[in-house]
Amino acid sequence: MPLIPEEPQIHESAQGPRAASAAGRPAPTPRPVPGPRSAATPRPGHPGPGPARPTPPAQRPHPGAGQSPSSRPENRSEQRTGPQIQLIPAPADGALDAAEEAVDLLLESGRAPGDVLVLTTGEQHPWTAHELSFGEAAYWAQEAAGDDVFFAHASTVERAATRPVVVVAVNGGADDVTARALPLALQRAGVLLIVCGDPQRINAVLGAGV
Question: 111-127: per-residue pLDDT in tens?
Fold first, then answer.
């Protein structure tokens, strides 16, 4: 099924200079609702739950006792769904701005920078171009370190490791690059894939959708 834009959530308190429309640029795009947070990534200052205390041997139930097949842990793991997909409508020349706004909101909501991978289908992000000027080895070493937001071109998505959140800015480029990159980006997204771009173009490129 084609991607359907989710109802945007406007973060009123976060509207600042980045949200203002520059000359010749389209109106600011809606910001995404932060995706689910993994248990391993608690908010700063709010540590996650400590390790569970072991059950005293005398109180330990027999494996499977009193549990229906659907409630057993091995069955719960089989019922997990794939990553959530979110579409933020934006024209090609505003897709990168929309992606950066999405990253800002993710970080403000407590996501660790190393949780986020940003891909562009058209022109490279300025950070990508700058870091590649020091050589590909140093550039990809930063991706492997996984301690900060990483920006890459969609044509290189196969070299990127899986991260909880992948943001794709459909900011131009050939249709075949977009058609190939989006399914791969979905594979790289652990819990959330955010696609910023023209919904009509994205759905036309994908056909039946992601």
Answer: 999 999 999 999 999 99
Are the C-beta atoms of residues 208 and 183 closer than 8 Å to each other? no
What is the rounded CA–CA span in Å between residue 133 and residue 130? Answer: 5
Question: Smallest Cα–Cα separation from 101: which of 175, 164, 162, 21?
Answer: 21
CA distances from 36 to 77, 88, 106 (A): 17, 17, 10
Residue closest to 100 by CA, chosen among 201, 18, 35, 4:
18
Q: Is 118 exposed, middle or buried (0-12, 13-18, 19+ CB in 10 A)?
A: buried
Question: 71 vs 51, 75, 78, 127, 195, CA distance in Å?
Answer: 22, 7, 11, 47, 34
Residue bearing tokens 């920006």: 151
Helix axes 175-188, 199-206, angle to 10 degrees: 90
Neighbouring C-beta atoms of residue 91, cutoff 10 Å: 17
For residue 112, count CB atoms less than 10 angstroms from its CB and return exposed for 0-12, middle for 13-18, buried for 19 or more: buried
**Paired tokens of 115:** 């949780």
Residue 15 phi/psi, 5° resolution?
A: -70, 115
The token pair that represents 144 in the structure block = 């492997």
pTM of the model: 0.64
Distances in Å between the Cα of 97 and the Cα atoms of 106, 133, 159 are 14, 23, 24
Mean pLDDT over 64-71 rounds to: 44
